[in-house]
Amino acid sequence: MEKFEKPILVTKPFLPPLEAYCEGLKEIWDNQWLTNNGPVLQRYRKELKNYFNTDNICLFNNGTLALQIALQGMGISGEVITTPFTFVATTHALYWNKIRPVFCDIEPDTFTLDPAKVEELITPWTTAILAVHVFGRPCRLNELADIAKRHNLALIYDAAHAFGVNVNGKPVCHYGDLSMFSFHATKIYHSIEGGMLAFKDPGLASTFNYLKNFGFKSETEVVMPGTNAKMNEMQALMGSLVLKYMDELIRKRKQLYQIYRERLADTPGISLSPEPAPGVEYNYAYMPALINEKEFGMSRDALYMKLREHNVFARRYFYPLLNEFACYQSVPLARPVEVAERISQQIITLPIYADLKVADLHKVCDILTEMV
Ligand code: T4K
């Protein structure tokens, strides 16, 4: 099989028409207002409130700072039960708040936190569960809510991948105490860089607003030692424009996702996650596949390299596991995370983005199936 002439990346950001962005830039130039809760951001916030059907949102310059501020603003401390199968930022946000991560194993099908294994990790120091809707697949919402309620723990979701995901007709952020969304360029939805918190308790809004703006309450009052995590006008403009295309982007991704499923369904050694549960409107954010070395005849890492030779830049999200990174090796595992270890060794995330040409996707599948 011929290699691709141009690289096929795991993802590519969607860009709205340049004319529309330039038009928006004119408004920003006219306003001479670039950041600090400007008019474009204020309008954008209203659009998002509408999209998520909640007033309780707060915007940030990226998802990592949003999560750090969420934990600080909610007063989370001590130990937090979380997953090792995620992007490093999830655990970094805990560490920056001097919170000890307690890694819990995941479920083999959805790669999300296994509720059956959460409870045994709770100690007198546990204050919260920080679960991740990995690849946009919702966690076990009811089971986690039940555990959190019984043990009086905060339930926080890293929903970085879950923009556009609905569960039983409601945006996924309506579950749990708080959800963090990342609007990074590599995400299904983006504002170049950006992040959002959606939360249940309206009283948290002012704390988050103080924390992201140096703690200022007024020109002369600083009520807490905040940081600078504000979204600027150019980010808000991009976010506002991309939002208009969300339904279309999800539709296109669904089509690509389904072609992958059809093409790879019977390939020995490649397994795909089951379809999302009934009631879940999925966003098709990522295309993870598990490689069984014996059946496929090649290890995941060998496949990853072979794809690169064909100019296909798949990624191994999430490998290594977080507990394997040098900076977290000193965090002892209270229980083994065997499922997460296996998934992390077998996972490969294949290219999927709205602009990916169907013919190119078929060629990626041809490359994969011809290797068996
Ligand atoms: N929690 C979770 C679960 C997350 O996944 C993330 C971020 C966060 C929290 C933190 O949110 P933020 O603070 O980022 O808002 C990428 C992203 O940088 C990162 O945002 C994301 N997760 C993670 C899963 O993926 P890398 O190191 O893989 O990025 P990079 O530069 O290798 O790009 C990935 C692919 O996208 C490459 O093939 C190149 C392509 N690309 C990238 C950019 C930036 C483009 O084609 N155009 C672009 O503009 O982390």
How would you characterize the overall build of this protein?
The protein has 372 residues and is α/β, with parallel strands linked by helices. Helices cover 37% and strands 16% of the residues. It has 13 helices and 17 strands. It has helices at 18-31, 39-52, 63-73, 88-96, 115-118, 141-150, 204-212, 233-243, 246-264, 293-296, 300-309, 338-346, 358-371; strands at residues 8-9, 57-60, 79-82, 100-103, 126-132, 154-158, 166-167, 170-171, 178-182, 195-199, 216-218, 221-222, 270-271, 280-281, 287-291, 312-313, 347-350. The strands form 5 sheets. The chain has a 7-stranded mixed β-sheet, with helices on both faces. Strand 11 and strand 12 form a beta hairpin. It is globular, with a radius of gyration of 21 Å. The two termini are 13 Å apart. The model has no long low-confidence stretch (mean pLDDT 97). Bound molecules: ligand T4K. Ligand T4K binds next to helix 3 and helix 4.
Outline the secondary-structure elements.
Layout: E1 8-9, H1 18-31, H2 39-52, E2 57-60, H3 63-73, E3 79-82, H4 88-96, E4 100-103, H5 115-118, E5 126-132, H6 141-150, E6 154-158, E7 166-167, E8 170-171, E9 178-182, E10 195-199, H7 204-212, E11 216-218, E12 221-222, H8 233-243, H9 246-264, E13 270-271, E14 280-281, E15 287-291, H10 293-296, H11 300-309, E16 312-313, H12 338-346, E17 347-350, H13 358-371
Parallel strand pairs: 1-16, 3-4, 3-5, 5-6, 6-9
Antiparallel strand pairs: 2-10, 7-8, 7-14, 9-10, 11-12, 13-15, 15-17
Helix pairs in contact: 1-8, 2-8, 3-4, 3-7, 9-13
The structure holds ligand T4K.
